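Colleagues,

Please find the record for the two-part complex below.
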Amino acid sequence: MFGLVTYILLAQLAAFAIVIFFGKRLPRGGDWVSLLAIWSSLAAALYLFATQMLANYDPHYFQGFTFDWLSWGDYRLTIGYAVDNMAIMMLVVVTLVSAVVFLFSVGYMKGDPKYSRFFAFLSLFAFSMLGVVLADNLLVIFVFWELVGLTSYLLIGFWHEKDSAADAGKKAFIVNRIGDAGMLIGILFVFTTLGTLNLHEISEGVAAGRLSGVMLTITGICLFCGAIGKSAQFPLHVWLPDAMEGPTPVSALIHAATMVAAGVYLTARLFVILTFDASLVIAYVGGFTALFAATIAVAQYDIKRVLAYSTLSQLGYMVMALGSGAYMAGFFHLVTHAMFKACLFLGSGSVIYAMHHALHHIHSDADPQDMRNMGGLKKHQPLTFWTFLIATVALSGVPLTSGFLSKDAILGGTLAFAMQHPKHWLLPVFGFSAAALTAFYMFRLIYLTFTGTFRPGKEAEAELHESPWVMTLPLVVLATLSIFIFYTLPNFNPASPRGGWFATLFPDPPRAYESTMVHSAGLEGHEAEASVHGRAGAEGGTAHALDEPAPPDIDRRAVETPIVHEEQSPETHEALHDVHHRAHSTAMLISIFAAGLGILIATMGYLWATLNPATWQRRLGVLYRGMFHKWWFDEIYGATAVKGTLLLSTILGWFDLYIVDGIVNGAAWLGRVFAFIEGWFDLYIVDGLVNLTAWFVGIWGRIVRLFQGGQLQRYILYTLVVIGIFIVLKVV
Amino acid sequence: MGKLTLITFLPVVGAAIIAFLPRDNHKLVRWTALLTTAIVLVIALSLYPQFDKSMIGINDVNSFQFVEKASWIPAFHINYFVGIDGLSFPMILLTALLCFLCIPASWGIKKGVKGYHSMFLLLETGMMGTFVSLDFFLFYVFWEIMLLPMYFLIGIWGGPRRIYAAIKFFIYTLIGSVLMLIVILVLYFNVRDPVTGAHTFNMLHMMNQANHGGILSLSTVRILLWFGLYIGFAIKVPVFPFHTWLPDAHVEAPTAISVILAGVLLKMGTYGLLRISYPMLSDATRTFAWFLALMGMINIIYGAFCAMAQKDLKKLVAYSSISHMGYVMLGMSSLTSAGMNGAVFQMFNHGTITAMLFLLVGVIYDRAHHRQIDGFGGLANVMPRYLGIFSFAFFASLGLPGLSGFISEVMVFVGAFPVWRTLTIISIFGIIITAAYHLWTLQRIFFGATNPKYENLPDINGRELFTLVPLAAVVLSLGIWPHPITDLMNSSLTFLGHLVQGTLPL
């Protein structure tokens, strides 16, 4: 089995190496090498899915394989594969979406001068992503995590002649690095306290209480920072919409189905070690992102941007689900969303492809991605339309689709959480409002794109064609997989995944803080107080723990279990079950209502024209402008973080050049001044004295010489004068 | 004659041969130099299979390898005493490799070819000698030997401000040397050979506290000596605020000399701290480890921000070196096994990665005759192969996993985090700034519309690739499997960490 896993992983790397170095010399730019690698890996992944996951049908299925990698002192860091249900499921999702996207790219990227390189990068991406999925160790996850970021950078900036594409790639990498820095700190916290980075050993260590309390909360949040970056959660969401500068297959594969889901995947992997406070932070980040991104999607006109914000919003759902304890629901939505969102992106690619041709034909430089330039595509691209519609319905959460099942599971889980913790009523509100908005903006997109008349005019319309089969086949595959039946088997219940293979194989695991709950029944007074503090997440937890130096184990419970207002007895367990049941049926009704409302308003606005969008945009005023301008986050970050960093670097550069080096040069200058003064002193004072002496002697000699002319008559005269003076003096 | 003597003095023999070659036969001169450095590289590599990785070295003469010892100036107890351990061997390999690759990288030198190559080979002797010396006087002699050819190589074959840069480099380094000389003399007069009872320059005797006497028993004196050595070495590393000679020297130096300067000479500073300050004045090291960590952090952050502000590509790379040497300082200040190993591994990796960067700067400078980052633009489609290897080097420099720099940085962080938590966390944020200035530079040079001025620049050629590909191979393979280098140093550095911490298992 590990041979097969290794094949899946290394086939992509080999394909990358072959295509990047020899692609240009291979027929068809070597695209078939990449395709061969990924399709065979899909077959292998499906084989594992059938023979390991389904055949064993065990929620706790696990196969590991480790070997030594790094070492220092006596320490050996082992790495390896962790193959469990989640890994196999992810293998299938990643290879499946990759396989159809690779195929789609054959059509979409045809004629691009860098066609070959595109496939090389895609293969490198698949390799890195599969690495994230298979790793059993936080450090290895981090390694592949950053490699995925690299391929994302390379593919977003694929058309780097455009400044916007180059900017977007850079932005994606740097924003992700911010999250990664946090994640690295989290990894270091784990390593210093537990001495291991193996996922399995980490959960064991946490269960044994070797990392707990505030430290565990901080660790969890630090690690979650990586997920915030990669899954583009608020406040690091800004890179994902810009990432749409990449070719559309890239958006479908990396920025909708797989890479951005890596953050959710990581959070799911860490699920068991999250404390209550850390979970709360995660739930609020996710919930807020879900709603916040949906509001922006409502006001966008670029077809890919609408989908991008929709992706943000859906990732927010998954994160919120994991935060509020609905593990199965979060992971379930990851899988279903991967299918229909990839379908939507590829569908938009098919539309853009047709639009590009049509607009090119009439020599229009109108934006082929702007929905205001579209309309009526339904009759020209029927296959694209119908698959797009199925995926849209799934995303909107309409019954009979996979999206309905998974979204409902999330909303139900969130509602149940809020029913247990009434203080957190905001979470389901986030969820339901986002659901209504989702249905609205998706149908708005459908109507603007596929219905009505083609706005650029008849001449261009004649040039609209359905895309070739390499592009439509992927759409059909993905749209088919958006139907509920694939996820509920062996049941045929379109209302609930319960009892189906997915729900059976991915039950919600117990968490570290929940397992301590049982012991803490006697600590109610303590908890009541803790829950007051615990609300604000990490900071609250920290403050609380610092106020109160309690023994570690009590401290841990205090911080982690504000949950336990109810008694932990068999009856409560029953009650808890009941809460979940009630929550789910309520949630289902509300979510169907929300979706219906959204669809209705969109239909009234954009199909029946009973509501005028322009009027409503005016009426909403600043609210609409905020949505349209993405709540000005790019501007805010540009003015603060980016400008601030550049300013600081300029200041430090100046400081270095003029102050630090100035001191050095100043010292050198002082040395030279000193040397000059000394030289002057030497020349004029020291040597001057010497010369003065000489001069003095010279003068003296000259004076004396006056009297020593060598003439005898003068000497006689001097003698007479002196004798004369002598006589005069003597007489006087 | 032992192999260490060979690798140390073969280059100077080559230099002597070159001196007798005809002035105009550039080809012969170059091939002689290439052959000499190739032989040195082969000998250095031939040490590898014989090198016993479990031997510690550091302060024990018996576990040093390839030791040679002969009396040199008996009146002052000065010996020719050389040997290597896990600390010096990786540096020997690095030096031999870079020197070999620098000769083809100097193919473009047209002026004074004979002089250039003799000076270069003399420089190699100085570097090798410094890394193998176990006698402090000998160490000092080699240390000074490096200075002279470097001064001429920058001052004669450098850019427009070469005289300024050469003098700045020379005087700055000389100040450090003077401080070191004072410390050497103080040590000499206060350390006694345990056998003969005479004064000694033997480094290993100096490391044994039992041999210390006289004013060395005063802790103030030991701290003063420690700071004397620190300044001497910090100038070389260079540590803030003694770093400003570096950007000037790099900008003016010819490509190959920048490679040697950043690749090997900077390592002398941290090597000196580890080889000399750490074991000889371990108590002071322990007391001031926090200071080393702080300076490491400052180097990382300050260097990164300064790099971001640069407009000259070579200056940017120079500042990135300052930032990357900060990781070495941070790692070694932790005294933990992971940190010490990470530090020396980072020394090695920085040597290979920064060598690539300087070679790449040389490639573009040879074509465009300037290095202004904003003066290019859109080179991606003009020079695709150059873009490929340039991005490889840049991503290695920003610590991309899968490449060697990442492993050493992680080891440094893992080692330093439990000891200096806050400083390490601040340093980790340096990786964001590092990513930012690397990618920004990449974009300004390669992306966007093609600059019409450079539409016809030829792509990187075979000779240039010959200098870069071996380094890329080393960076990639050590990034995946670091053991060929980390295994060499593990026992020595783990021991050194314990020695300084005073936690040696007895």
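Chain A touches chain B through 49 residues (CB under 8 Å).

Comments are welcome before we finalize the supplementary table.
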